[in-house]
Automatic annotation (TrEMBL):
Gene3D superfamilies reported in the protein's UniProt record: 3.30.450.40, Histidine kinase-like ATPase, C-terminal domain, PAS domain, PPM-type phosphatase domain
Signal peptide start-end: none
Gene Ontology BP term (one): regulation of DNA-templated transcription
Region (Disordered): 278-298
Entry protein name: PAS domain-containing protein
PROSITE patterns reported for this sequence: PAS
Length: 890
């Protein structure tokens, strides 16, 4: 029966307690949106432990759907009682089903496609693929950590009659005992329990009141128990009436703000011990040597560190240094972890030292010659003043004697543990052996916790780099790329960041962007960095220290302080940057520089900094190095794109007339809109120019395609028109010679639609035009009565046939008439299957009676823009000419 119950429990389906779903369109930006959706959902459910893995897996699977499969992606998040299940479905069910043992190698992790399932197999607790007639589902399950979040210990639910009995008013006596074992605080509950007023017990040893239950054969007593960092157990307190009150006590040794140690004792009646007792605690020290009947000897790890052990690395290290300090009655203790190559040690925990200043500081493993200069061997320094600098970590702390021992796992150095005291000669080899024994007990647990933390950091780093790469790839704007670089590093990797750029090898680095997590300090930081020589742009990979900002800030802050005290030389101006004390504090820690190298050239430097006396941990520097490589390529791509865009726009401007001449008696308005990001050269063009006295030439055309070849034909057409027209050739002759010139371009030639005409304003207020329409949308004439009609007939386009027989047509514009010329970007404006067309343009022009040329062109543009919601995909040129109703010479 029991076996059946176990089977049913294991086979039961997880209970779904919440769900969230979203659909993402098949566009590149949907991948980032899907990541944000999953991250926000899981954080809202309180599943922060598995967010990074879920984001990475979702990113790969949604990429497969929207990028590789080209379909929309449906993302479903299900919260269960054991974890979370995420499903990603695309609408491409014909995808190939992966077969096991099919004689084919798995996809390489560096390939663009095929990585999603590999990551599922590596990160997910369970995963699978489900095919239907219309969709393909890829799902993965991430289980929550086994430990309940925030719970140290828990007991089962008990019936009321099984609960421990306590008085209706539970009194918890709080007794504070100083370094000498004397009582310094006694609360009201202690007075009620033992009938002593605080004045009666103040300054007296606790041993005067404690009835300590000595264990035969041991010498442990109340004095020894008060020296331990933590202790729980039973003893008695003699009350004012002389009777012994059995109590259950919990002792915790702490330090006050001045560093003075004392012990806080919490006491309850022994039958109410359930209020304080921790069932997982180790036995009292006097019972450790004699374990209870039926139980084996105490675990050496628990004897040293206590139980339960912290689940996180920082908590374990902090408890280790506190326990080591208490064990040797020291004033300070510290623990350092070795880097992977065992060349440096990094401070990870300390007590009794300025931890904010020392945390993540690095010291070499081999500090000097001899056994005392290596962290691989136990060492005892009886007086540090006799060997200055022997332990750099303790310089300026007032510590005189120190004992250090290595932490080793399978012969490999993983760290170093040290205990120091303010008095000289406190430690001998005996203390070193005791500390080494403790270090041997804790080393394996520390290494396991460190590896667990590294794995967590690795997964978090992977998620960070995925999002960083997506953000950097989402823009080609240089200034936005610089801003993203800084915003991704602050405050995730550093407290402040500065980005220097290098235009070319002969240029000096230029400070391009500065960011600090405190916006009020950005201006001061920027002012400081502007007056400090920039770092050298060397291509050496990895992070290197840069002390210039810290030194300059400290010097300037010192001068500021001296001047405020009236000790500075006010006659001589300060040479250093005018940094405030706040700026000095902001940049007073470690500063590192990472080169931005792209295409074998240093294009800048990424500078990261910490506030006063803080250091970077090695894993953060490695992550920053990965980010700098991606950021460098994104910055160089933005530079190349900006240069190409500038060249393209400059060339585009050169293919259009710089300004339009004023034509007597005729209103002229031109609107030109280049389509596409960067305004690629080529496409549509227009021109209006004087030919001779009283005669003007005008043209509007469209070259097939875009790019350099189209731009070449555009430039050829515009300049050839001017040259040939001013040589006296008529419209047909001009276009025939232009056609021959285009065909001479050979493979680079492009066909060209062109409307060319000559304009003669008349003294009676009219205007005579002679036009040739070579394959171009026909010009439209708007009369005063609102009628619209074509003003020319279609003829063959240019650049296709050798022999063209073109002719010109004469059009007279009466006062109030309008001639409208457009390119096909106007008539071919689309919204789905609908197109504006010639009829739609005619309908809009019909409503323009009585408007000026400028108003006519503006109304046509508004109608084109409103016809479709999407931006225009083709260039547009609009040329409107109108003869005013009243002649100018009237």
């Amino acid at each position: 029966m029991v076996g059946e119950q176990i089977t049913d429990t294991r086979m039961r389906r997880p209970v779904i307690t919440a769900r969230a779903a979203a659909t993402f369109e098949p566009v590149g930006r949907s991948v980032a949106t899907a990541r944000a959706f999953v991250r926000d959902t899981l954080q809202g459910w309180g599943y922060g432990d598995i967010v990074d893995d879920a984001v990475v897996l979702t990113s790969e699977l949604v990429t497969n759907a929207v990028v590789h499969a080209g379909t929309a992606a449906d993302v479903l998040c299900l919260r269960t009682d054991t974890g979370v299940r995420i499903e990603v479905a695309d609408r491409y069910p014909e995808r190939e089903i992966p077969l096991q043992n099919a004689g084919r190698a798995f996809a390489h992790p560096d390939r663009e496609g095929g990585r999603g399932l590999l990551l599922c197999g590596a990160l997910a607790s369970r995963w699978g693929v489900e095919y239907t007639a219309s969709q393909k589902h890829v799902w993965f399950q991430l289980d929550l950590p086994e430990r309940p979040a925030g719970t140290r210990s828990a007991g089962p639910a008990l019936p009321v009659d099984a609960l421990p009995v306590a008085d209706s008013r539970v009194r918890v006596a709080v007794v504070q005992v100083d370094r000498g074992g004397c009582i310094s605080f006694w609360n009201e509950d202690a007075r009620d329990l033992f009938a002593y007023d605080p004045e009666q017990v103040a300054g007296k040893p606790l041993t005067d009141f404690a009835a300590w239950p000595h264990t035969p054969g041991t010498g442990t007593g109340i004095a020894e128990a008060l020296q331990l960092s933590r202790w729980e157990g039973s003893y008695g307190i003699r009350g004012a009436d002389g009777r012994v009150v059995p109590v259950y006590a919990s002792h915790l040794r702490v330090r006050d703000a001045d560093g003075e140690p004392y012990t806080v004792c919490l006491l309850v009646r022994d039958h109410e011990r359930a209020v304080l007792q921790s069932p997982l605690r180790t036995p009292a020290p006097d019972q450790a040597a004699q374990p209870p009947e039926g139980r084996g000897p105490a675990d050496p790890f628990e004897v040293f560190i206590g139980s339960p052990a912290p689940d996180d690395l920082d908590g374990l290290l902090q408890r280790t240094v506190e326990r080591a300090r208490d064990m040797l009655d020291g004033d300070a203790a510290y623990l350092l972890l070795a880097t992977d190559d065992e060349t440096e040690l990094e401070v990870r925990a300390s007590t009794g030292l300025p931890s904010a200043r020392q945390r993540f500081a690095r010291v070499p493993v081999e500090a000097g010659s001899g056994r005392y200069g290596s962290a691989r061997m136990p060492a005892v320094h009886e007086d540090l003043t006799a060997v200055p600098g022997a332990v750099p970590l303790l310089s300026g702390t007032g510590m005189r004697s120190v004992v250090t021992v290595p932490l080793k796992v399978e012969g490999r150095l993983t760290g170093s543990l040290g205990v120091a005291a303010e008095a000289p000669g406190r430690y001998t080899n005996e203390e070193a052996l005791r500390l080494q024994f403790a270090a041997d007990r804790i080393a394996l647990a520390v290494e396991r916790a460190r590896l667990t933390e590294l794995e967590r950091l690795r997964r978090g780093s992977l998620s960070f780099l995925v999002e960083a790469s997506d953000l950097l790839a989402g823009t080609l704007d240089r200034d936005q790329t610089l801003a993203l670089m800084a915003q991704m590093t602050v405050p995730t990797l550093a407290t402040w960041c500065a980005v220097y750029t290098v235009a070319d090898q002969a240029s000096e680095p230029e400070l391009s962007y500065v960011l600090h997590e405190d916006e009020d300090r950005i201006d001061g930081l920027k002012s400081l960095l502007m007056k400090v020589d920039p770092p050298e742009p060397v291509p050496t990979p990895g992070a290197r220290l840069w002390n210039a900002p810290t030194d300059a800030a400290h010097d300037a802050a010192l001068r500021t302080s001296l001047r405020s005290l009236g000790l500075g030389n006010s006659a001589r101006p300060s040479k250093g940057p005018g940094a405030t004390l706040a700026t000095a504090s902001a940049v007073g820690g470690e500063t590192v520089v990472l080169p931005l190298v792209a295409r074998n050239r240093v294009i800048g430097m990424l500078t990261l900094g910490k506030p006063s006396e803080e250091h970077f941990r090695q894993e953060i520097l490695e992550l920053a190095e990965d980010l700098s490589r991606r950021a460098a390529l994104a910055l160089d791509n933005a530079r190349l794109y900006s240069e190409r865009t500038a060249i393209s726009q400059s060339l585009q401007r050169s293919l259009l007339p710089p300004e339009l001449p004023e034509v007597p008696g005729v209103e002229v308005e031109v609107i030109y809109r280049a389509a596409g990001e960067g305004n690629e050269v080529g496409g549509d063009f227009y021109d209006l120019f004087p030919i001779r006295d009283g005669a003007y030439g005008f043209a509007i055309g469209d070259v097939c395609g875009t790019g350099p070849e189209a731009a070449a034909v555009t430039g050829l057409a515009r300049h050839a028109l001017r040259l040939l027209a001013r040589e006296g050739f008529g419209g047909p002759a001009v276009l025939e010679r232009l056609n021959a010139a285009i065909l001479d371009e050979g493979a680079r030639s492009r066909f060209l639609t062109l409307l060319y005409g000559e304009l003669w304003p008349q003294r009676d207020g009219s205007a005579v035009l002679k036009v040739v329409c070579a394959g171009h949308p026909l010009p439209l004439r708007l009369r005063q009565d609102g009628t619209v009609e074509p003003a020319a007939e279609p003829q063959p386009l240019l650049g296709v046939m050798d022999d063209l027989e073109l002719y010109e047509q004469t059009v007279t514009l009466d006062p109030g008439d309008v001639l409208l010329c457009v390119t096909d970007g106007v008539t071919e404006r689309r919204e789905g299957t609908r197109m504006l067309g010639d009829d739609g343009l005619t309908d809009v022009l019909t409503t323009c009676t009585g408007l000026t040329a400028g108003a006519v062109a503006a109304r046509i543009l508004r109608a084109v823009e409103r016809f479709a919601a999407e931006p225009a995909s083709d260039d547009m040129a609009i040329l409107a000419m109108r003869v005013p109703e009243v002649p100018l010479d009237a």
